[in-house]
Specification:
The chain has 189 residues and is α+β, with helices and mostly antiparallel strands. It has three helices and four strands; from the N terminus they run H-H-E-E-E-H-E. The chain has a four-stranded antiparallel beta sheet, covered by helices on one side. Strand 2 and strand 3 form a beta hairpin.
Amino acid sequence: MKSNTILLAIISILFLGTLYVSYTNSQQIETLKQENANLYAKIDSVLEISRELSPQQPIATETLPSPKGIGSAILDFLMTLGDDDNANNSNKKRIVVDTKYRIEDRYVRYDIEKPELKGDEVGNVVISILVNYSGDVNSAKLKSATGITNEEVIEACKKAALKTKFNYGTDDDYDEKKRGTITYIFSEK
């Protein structure tokens, strides 16, 4: 009888110890989640500031004096062939994609995924998204398209939206999915 009481006391102590360790681990996990969310916010703000401070500008190149001889004549000939190709390509439009998003209480972890460029249309594609607790985009549907009629471009925008990752939700919205939009702006440069 006495050994059963001792055994019961040991089991109770082990059970309470396990509960205590579980509780402290859950508190540490919550702290880490919050620190992680703050870190992602800081990274996003630094990336945004760096984009504002360093606009894309062409790099100046130096011209080297051309060497003399048969090898240089062949090289000059080959380079003029490449110039004809570049002249044909310069007549084509160069399309760039900018992005923006809108979703309550969430931010993008790294950057919004950009779609593959297909075609040369200029305009906006707005994708309606549904984001789960862990920040994954579960659903991406076309909300509107202005100036873009190419279905391949719209599908590329949907695929890019599905690849975009957002921060974790709070414990209050664990079972909820947040609705928002990602806008892809196609412009000529």
